[in-house]
Each structure stands twice: as C-alpha cells, then as structure tokens.
Amino acid sequence: MQPGDVLAVCLLCWSCGVRVAAAVHRTDLFPYGTLSGDSVLAEGDDETSRVLSLPRPFYFYSSLFVATNGIISAQDLPMEKQYVDDGFPTDFPVVAPFLADIDTSGGRGQIYYRVTETPSVLNRVAQEVHRGFPDAKFTPTHAVVATWENVAAYEEQSRTSGPSNKVNTFQAVIGYDETDSYVLFLYPEGGLNFFGTRPKESYNVEIELPARVGFSRGEITYLIFSRTEGPHFSVTGDQETVKNLNHCGLSLLSIPYSRFQQQCSQNSFCSDYATGYCCHCRPGFYGNGRHCLPEGAPQRVSGKVSGTVTVGSTPVSLNNIDLHAYIVVGDGRAYTAISEVPEPVGWALMPVAPIGELFGWLFALELPNSQAGFKTTGAEFTRRAEITFYPGNERLSISQTARGLDDNNHLTVDTVVSGSVPFLPPGAEVTMDPFKETYQYYPSVATSSSVREFSVVSAERGSESFSFQLKQNITYRDCRHDNRAAAPETLQITMERVFVMYVKEERILRYAITNKISPVGVEPTGPELVNPCYAGNHDCDTTAQCIPLEGQAFQCQCATGYRGDGRNCYDVDECAESSSSCGAHAQCVNLPGSHRCQCQSGYEFGYDGRTCVVALVCPLRCIFGAHSAAYVDECSSSPCHVNARCINRLGSFQCQCQPGFDGDGFYCSEQEERPKTHCEHHRRRATDSEGNPIVGAYVPQCDSEGQYIPLQCYGETTYCWCVDQDGREVPGTRSHDVVKPACLPSVAPPTMRPLPRPDVTPPTNAGVTLLYAQGQKIGALPLNGTRLDGTGSKTLLTLHGSIVVGIGYDCKENQVYWTDLSARTINRASLVPGAEPEILINTNLVSPEGLAVDVKRRLIFWVDSTPDVIESANLDGSGRQTLFDTDLVNPRAIIVVSSAGTLYWTDWNREAPKIECASVDGQNRRVVVSDGIGLPNALTFDSSSGQVCWADAGTKRLECISPDGSGRRVIHPTLNYPFSMVYYRGHFYYTDWRSKDSSQFTDEYLPDQRSHLYGIAIATTDCLSGETGVRLELRRFKAQSTKWFPKRRIILKVAPLCAV
To answer: Domain ranges in the chain?
Structure first.
C-alpha cells in the first residue's frame, strides 16, 4: 500500500466522542463545487473567507471562517505565521481537518465552502452520526461543508527544482442542532499525498512539520472551546507508520455542550436543589450565577453594529461598526457611543435611544426591593425590539445578542438593525423627556411596551414633535430549580437626563441616560428616597458601592477587588498578593476589580470551573477497522539540533536547546557566559545556599540581563522605591502606597534583532501625526481628523542603546527633539528622508525626562530628575541655563504655552506632589495645584479652555484647572496608570502602563512593542497656537465638558494605546 492511498483518522478523546469509519472514495464526499452552491476561496498562501453567517448559531457562534491552511474557525484568523508552524492548542477556536501550510496560488487547487439546509446533506450527516454514536438522538438542522480539492503545500522553488506535483483532497462537515454538534472529516483514497509542510522561517533546514488534525478550543470562556488541547493528532508520511495505521478514511467528533451549560462563574457557588443545580454569586458580586461582576465597579460593553437602515428612501448599510458603552453603576448613568456612522443615518438614529437603553436596564441604579437586569440575564441573552415611528409609520427592528464576558470581564453585545427611520435634517437637535417603563418578568423572558415622544429642532423645519411605539422582549437562560416565588413579576425603570447627539466631524452617535429601577409605583424622588445613594448624587468613587444609612447619611465602600476609603479606590492585584482563587496548575491573570484563572498546558478546568485537572486523553480504535491506530513519536526521526533535546507531545513535538546553548532548537549555539553583575552579586549575598531570602534581608530584583529593575520592593510588602543603574535609591521615591512609584529605567534594553541605520524615515502623509517615543525608537502614528490611522504607523528613528523619554516637535523647521535617558543626552533630527540624529547637549545630564519646545522663542526646556533641576537652551543647544534648582524632588513632565510665555511642570514627590508654573525666563514661580493629587505623571494644555490638565497615576484621574487655580474639573475619573498626555483639537491622548502579566491586549496600531511608551508630540506643518503637548497619551476623550463618552479601545501588549 502506498502512503497516499488512505489516511487513518484515529483521534484522542477529551470527554467527547470520536468515531472513525472505513475508507471513502472521492464519490463518497459530500457534494461540493459551485453547482452545489459553494463559495470559492480566493487563491493564495494565507487567505481567509468572508464571514460565513449561520442562519442559526452553532451554539453561541453565529459565523465561521474558512482558511487556506486546512482549518475552520469561529473568529477571523490571525496571520498564518502566528499559528501554522506552531503546535496545538492554538490561541483561537479551530476545527482542523488538515492544518498545514497550504498554498493555492497559481491555480494549485480550489477551496469550496457553504452552509446548507439541504435535506439530503442533513440526512447523510444524521446517518453517519448514528453509525458512529448509535445512542445519539441527533437531527441536524444545518450543516457547514468545506472542501479542499487538489491543494498543494507551500514550496520555495529554485532554479534546479520545480514544484512537486503532490496535492491533497479532504473535506470537513459540521452538522448541528440546538444542543449538539458533530464534525466529520473525510479523506478519500489517494487524496493525501503530502503529510506535512516545511516552516517558512527555517525553510532551508531539512525538516517537515506534520499536519495537525482535530480541534482546539482556544480561549473562549463558557463556550464550546476552552484553552486546553482538544482531540488531535499529527499526520506522518513515514512508510512503516502508514502501514500500521488502519484503513480508515472518515472520522467523527462529537463536541459536547453539557459540561459548559451549567458551569458557574469563578465568583459564584453551586447550590443543589431537589430538581437540579443552580449557580449563585458570592457576596460582593452580582449576576445570575453563571456570570458575576464585582458590586459597585463601573462596567464596559463593546460590540459591533451591522444591518441596513433606510432613511427616507435611501438605504444605508452599517458594516460591523464599533459600539462601546460605559456604565457608572453607582449612579445608573449609561454612556453609549457608536463609531463610523455615516452622516445620513447618524442624524436619523438620534431618537433611537433604545439601543443604549439596554445597558441602562442591565446596570440601573437599584432602589429597594428591585434588581437590575444583569442579575436576571447574566452575560448571555438576546434582546429583540420593534420600533414604529409616528406619524410616518416607519418601522425599525433591533436585535442585540450578548455573547458573554471577554477576558477583561467586559460584556460583549452585537447589534443588528434593519428597517426604516424618519429623515432628520443635518444639524438637528433631538430632545427626549424623562419617562418610565414597566418590565414584565416571566421564566426566561422579560418584556415591555411603551410609547415615547421626542422633539426635533432644526434650522430648516423649526421645532417638530414625533413619537414612537417600542415593543421588546429579552430572552435569557434562567435556572428553574431554585425557588423563584420571591422574584418580582414587574419592575419599573425610570430614565432621566436623556442626552442624544451625533457628531458629524467624528461620525459618532452618542446616547447618555440615567437609569433607576424600582417596584412599580415607587417614585425615585419620593421623601423616603432622598438618600444620596438612591438619588445618585453621592461622592463615592466610581469603583465604590454607596451604602445608604439613616436619613441622608451614607457610606462608601470600595467594590470587591478594589481597596481604599470608598471615595478613592484602587485595584487590588489578587495575583501579586496571592489572594486569588486559582488552584494548582493554574495561572492567575489580574483584571480590574477581579482576576481569572488559566489552566496550564496539559490541564483543563474540572466541573467546578476553578480546579485544573489533568486533561483526559485516551486512545480510541477505529470501530469499523481491524487494526489499532499507532501513536506517532516525531522525536524518533531526530528532527532537532545535535545540541538540543526533542520533547514529544500529543500530536506534536518541541525542540529545546540544551543548557549552555542558545537557539530555537533546530539550531543551537554555545552560550558565552557573561560575568555576574552587581545586582546578581547583591542578590546572591542576600540569599542562602538554596536561594531562599536570609531573614530580614532585602533581596534586590534583577532583570534577565542582570541589571537592577528600576522599581524595587521589600519582599511581598508595598514598601517600594526607585533605584538607579547601580541600585542606589532615588531620593523622594520611597512609598508605602498601593500605587507604586513610576520608575524609569537607566539602562537601555538589549537589542533583540539587527537594527536599521538611525536615519529618518519620514511619515507617509503630510497631515497631522503623533510622534511617540518608545525605548530605542521614535515612531509616527497618523491622525485622520482626531482618529488614529493605524495603517500608516511606522518607525521614524531606531536608536540603538537609547531610552527615549521626552519628545517635542518644532513645526517651523520640521524637527523632532528628544531626551535620551540612557545616553544622558538631548538630541534632534530633521524629519526629511535620510536625516541623521544630532546631539545637542551631552554634558552635566543625569536623568533627563520631560522636554518641551517653545516654537515662538526658539527654545527648549527639560527637567533632570536626579540633580532635580529645570533647564533651558536655544534650539541648537547653545545658551544653556538653569532656571530652577531648588524645591524640586522628582520633576517629570514639562510643557510650555508659547502664546502666554508660561512653563508648567509636575513634581511627583511622594511626600508633597505638586504642579508649578513660571514664566519662560524663570520669573514668577508659583504652585498651581498641591492638594488632591498623588502621582502627576502627565501634563498638557487645553488651548480651547485655557486650562492646564494632568493625568494622575495615584488618584487615577484626568483633571484640568485654570492657571489662577479656579475651575478645577474632572475629565475622567478612572484611569489605570497614566504616564504622559497630549491635547489636540478637543481630545486628550494618553498612555497607560500595564504589566505583561495582566495585559491581554493585542497590537492594533503600532509596530513591534518591546518597552513602555513614553513621550509624544503633535507633528504638523501648520504651527498651532498653544497646542504644544509633550507626550504620548493614547486614550482619547472629548474634552468640551465634564460629560465624557467612551469610544473604542486600541491597546498594546505592554503600554496600551487607546482611543476612547
């Protein structure tokens, strides 16, 4: 028998069933091709299909994607280099009939796919399932058929070798109904002629990675898949192994749901009732038991909006545009923002506040004897609403599906709108009066019906009155085993301070509503409810719960997972404090207000959803064949380097260099042992022979290169301070607070790969650009209006051995200026192609940080945080002088307002933090702010209001104040750990420092990240009056008032880049 004649598909089981049938012929494949209604995937090496929308969800998935490389996924796939040469499990849910590096370029095969309800297909799926699982009661309602026909492996051709003519044909069929799903893999005789592909990054190395077959469950909590290995195996072309495989050509996998459907949240407990089990949230949390959130903490919602809306007679399509909501649970205020809304429909959707009302109902301020919607529905439900407008009788349908909590405990809700709405003139304003709505509650559904009135004022038509009727129902999964007699049958929600707005310039639609829920007939403003907790006018932190006492007295209590006095609360890192609920073999990931647990490789959650147990794996045999499947040991062929060891795993293998060698395992070179550093010697002296700390000794923390980590702490306590490169404490940085000091490194990070020459690569467009500093480079991120344009982001300068912190821009000469903390220099470079960096000042600098450029007076200003001075010089480095060298402890940010000739700077002295100002010549020094601040890292100037603004890593607030000390206001009350900030055209941009351990965010806008983001400047050919921001601060807030509306988040792995 030849290796390509047949492939035996015998998988490993994981509490799910796998059955394998006898060999199949090509005529036994399910019908496929364009005549069968299939779509055809584009030719190429790494193509992904358009979204395959499912008429009925495949469990909670409503769409699938088919990819070139032999896989089907429930989410849009990353680039192939992130998964195709790696082993299982993948980081995303995947069904893999033959995962390998496949290439259909040049007509080398076709890939077909479709979703079907054809009776003949469904009947055959049912027959195959019943043959493999005789006891299964399965009648599929839908099937997904994907076929790879005569596809080839990726090959790099040379002059002496042409393409091999080996091609493969295989098919995957997913059949499912409301409760069960089965996957069939079909491999016809002679259909498999290659069994693996060579990795692109090591193509010249004679190694072939075997294809993988099976499924991986990714990191989707509560859904079908979780982050453990699903049943899979690796394909091999070894002659003896193929002979030992039995003659099977069809495999069948059963994907179970039952173990996930009743799984409780890690913040809940399970109760046993007479008829079954139910989940209930633990004290300090609320929800339906399957999903629990910390009480008092603000909540975020994200999702997509799609559909077609007809405005007048013009249909407008919405294609997966972003929706974000932010709810301050303490006062019931819900903010909703929908981005990229085209202008015709943006004005017309202003009255459709019910889109955002859902979030107000979920997290409404609770009056006595009532409960908000999230306690009923949890994070999985469907809301359907029908709106009829009068007098025109236009009808609009809204469908909103909640798909659970993401990795950050944020609710995910997708919205589909369809129908027609009345035309509203551009520039119109919509006002809606407060109103009440009564919800009727039944098992698994809540309903309401109401009539609303609203007014439209426009320049064209004056004032007009309209109304609409709303009918809605919200369906969810409840647990009927507990006693629900005490649950209310009706509740009343009161919606006040309804604010709707469409911003034409930004194409953003906004809703803001204050929501209170109470028993029917209870007036939220009655005399018995004057307590500030019920009125929503208390001064508790947004992450705190307001607890009413007698009369108007109340108490603020930080939400579970936060710590403080209730008026100022800080996130508790349960992972760092070893107070998590994660057990053995689990990794703790900190989240705002909570944490989550991830099982280590080879383990999976047990039925309690917390304990990690060994993944159940057991070999099965082909039930229609006569021979057992053979386990493939890839290490037997010695694929690794001679100085590496091969680690065999289920379905894959890993090459690992031996101790004393470096490399990827396929090539290993001998390490050159470096001498011990000062930090490593210090650490060795403070530990005993077994590496344990000597009692009472301080053990320094060293990085991977043996250098002192800038932030040092005493053991597991919160006593922390900053150190220089020699381990000496930086004066004024010692702290015993929960918020640790913001320490900067003094040694440049190691170079991870060859760096290009340090000459300038200018931005791709001539518009407005954010110049940002990050470690050894200066990058550019274009702005489209005020929105971030990630497609044009690029690196302008790469500076080996540098730590670029402060950055400024001279719009007259098109030059960027920066401070280098590692080289202890101040530098500049022209933003023209090929320009070389120029050192301006390289003497008597120790720790230069913040930098500002005075375009009008042709001066630069900077702070040096070790000698504690503020200095200035001409733009060419001449005329250097010291402005201030007294009463400074830890100066950091500095800005200059050229139009007023004024300097502002921050001093984050832990004993007495402050913000000061003076004239640019060093006269009239005075304190602007000294109370109510903690760690003012970031500073900028709001030219529209004439106020100086700062972001504080201690108080977590973004605030502004007039130069005379009046008009202080809070722009944003719940930052994380801001470092620096800039203002531009009514928006603030700022950076947040987050640890690698707790950050689960993806790179979306910037290139490869290896260190914190530091400074930023606005680069434009037009000089802007007053807008001379200093630093990179990439979250975005509308700054016209204290009412702020979150927008979408764009966050990085190490330092988050956000536009909100």
So the answer is: 12-261, 298-524, 586-614, 635-670, 678-740, 769-1038
Average pLDDT over residues 679-689: 80
Residue 1004 has φ and ψ, to the nearest 5°, of: -120, -35
The CA distance from 489 to 498, in Å, is 27
For the segment(s) 769-1038, the CATH number from 1.25.40.80, 3.40.109.10, 2.120.10.30, 2.60.40.10 is 2.120.10.30
1008 band by pLDDT with thresholds 50, 70 and 90? very low
- Give CATH for domain 678-740: 4.10.800.10
Identify the band that residue 859 occupies on the pLDDT scale cut at 50, 70 and 90: very high
pTM for this entry = 0.39
Q: Kindly list the distances between the CA atom of residue 378 and the CA atoms of 182, 279, 411, 474, 477, in Å, as whole numbers in the listed order.
A: 28, 11, 9, 12, 9
What would the pLDDT profile of 559-581 be if each residue is shown by its tens digit?
877 888 888 887 888 787 766 66
What is Dmax (Cα atoms) for the chain?
94
Report how far residue 419's alpha carbon sits from residue 397's, in angstroms, rounded to the nearest whole number.
6
Q: What is residue 344's predicted lDDT score, i.e. its pLDDT?
A: 85
Closest CA to 570 of 455, 701, 738: 738
319 within 8 A of 301, measured Cβ to Cβ: no
**CATH topology assigned to domain 635-670:** Laminin (2.10.25)
Amino acid sitting at position 626: A
Sign of CA dihedral 339, 342, 345, 347: positive
**Tokens describing residue 45:** 């090496």
Q: Which residues contact 1037 (CB under 8 A, 6 or more apart)?
A: 958, 971, 972, 987, 988, 1044, 1060
Q: What is the tens place of the pLDDT at every residue in 456-498?
A: 998 888 889 999 999 999 988 887 767 654 456 899 999 988 8
Instruction: Output the CA–CA distances (angstroms, integers) from residue 464 to 81, 396, 427, 558, 1009, in the order listed.
Output: 57, 20, 14, 46, 53
Q: Is the pLDDT of residue 50 over 50?
A: yes
Check whether 127 has a pLDDT greater than 80: yes
User: Is 448's pLDDT higher than 70?
Assistant: yes
Position 533 pLDDT exceeds 50:
yes
The winner for highest mean pLDDT among 83-97, 511-525, 559-573, 851-865 is 851-865
Residue whose tokens read 């909103």: 400
CA distances for 171 relative to 17, 150, 256, angstroms: 19, 11, 22
| CA-to-CA dists, residue 769 to 779, 792, 1019, angstroms | 10, 10, 5
**Category of 404 on φ-ψ map: left (φ > 0), alpha (ψ -120 to 50) or beta:** left
How open is the CA angle 609-613-615, to the nearest 5 degrees?
Answer: 110
- Using the structure block, give the residue that is written with the tokens 């009918």: 471
CA 774 to chain centre: 20
Residue 223 has pLDDT above 60, yes or no: no
195 pLDDT higher than 60: yes
Q: Nearest 5°: phi and psi at 168? A: -125, 150
| Nearest-angstrom CA–CA distance, 620 and 628 | 8
